Amino acid sequence: MKKENLEKIQGTLELITRKWWFLVLFILVGTISPPIVTEGFDPSKIGEIIIYILQNSLLKFCSPLYPVFKIIPIILVLTLILFGNRSGRIFSFYVGINYLLFAFLQGIAITDKYGFGMVTGNFILMILVSIFWFWEASVNKNNFIPQKLPITRYWVVPLAFLVFWYPVNLESMKPDFNLVYLFTNPAGLAFCTMTPVYLGILTLYYPKVNIATLRVTSLVGIIIGFWNMVENFLIKPDILWWNGVLHLPLLFISIYALVLSFKKIQLVEATKEEK
Q1: How far is 203 from 201, CA to CA, in rounded Å?
Q2: How far is CA 58 from its chain centroid?
Q3: Which regions span the lipid bilayer (predicted)?
Q4: DSSP 3-state of 252
Q5: pLDDT digits (tens, 9 = 90+) for 94-147
């Protein structure tokens, strides 16, 4: 496809994702989409079904892959720092694959209680985020050339590192600051722990990034982050309070990234600089 056609599509995506109805549609998909199960569906227990699917998702059976998906993003971040735009497409393509895996591994469960189960809203939203990252891999709008930034812009780094580390004992759900978790836990295959990393990176290169991808990713991060706050702090605070703390970076960085994506004046200035 010709470059001018890609730019036209990109402009359309940026315009559509700014519309109020697009935001409302996304929120509705993430909040009112009922789960799909093949056995034992009870409309009065939708919340319970969703939590059960999430707690028994396919991700639990992927433990041999956990180290692989912790090491790959570390390598990719280092290549971005060292090689900049030369590794940009590879990074975006990997992120697209990662979100595709999030959708299937976290959004689907096969259990005796409910048979095949899917958290429909999460699945759809993660697939859409994946599509936007694959689109970015095609148009290559992200500019990973280092910028001179005020120190305050780096507040996302420690939060992204914390959530990537994910220092929690998965059996007791209590704090456990074992450094081995940087390479061994399932954080590399989880939406809530990798999204702050990816959004954090984009905010450090903002405004020379794919705004549509930034906006959609952050919007989904806010939606899923909100429901995690509900579960961790309101439904099971005695057990999941620390897990809730570790999900705060998802909510905070997503809100920050979404706000940045709507700062129209800075986008115009960035375009002028590129020209």
Answers
A1: 5
A2: 18
A3: 20-37, 65-84, 91-110, 116-139, 151-168, 180-202, 209-227, 239-262
A4: helix
A5: 999 999 999 999 999 999 999 999 999 999 999 999 999 999 999 999 999 988
Q: Tell me the residue type at 16.
A: I
Alpha-carbon span 176 to 73, nearest angstrom:
22
C-beta separation of 53 from 109 below 8 A: yes
pLDDT in tens, 211-224: 999 999 999 999 99
Q: Tell how many helices (H) and how many strands (E) occur in the chain.
A: 12, 3
d(CA 174, CA 240) in angstroms, rounded, equals 8
Distance CA 69, CA 191 (A): 12
Question: HSE-up of 195 (CA within 13 Å, CB side)?
Answer: 38
Tokens of 241: 């309070």
Q: Which residue is associated with the tokens 């396919």?
A: 58
Closest to 246 measured CA to CA, from 176, 180, 154: 176
CB 189 within 8 Å of CB 102: yes
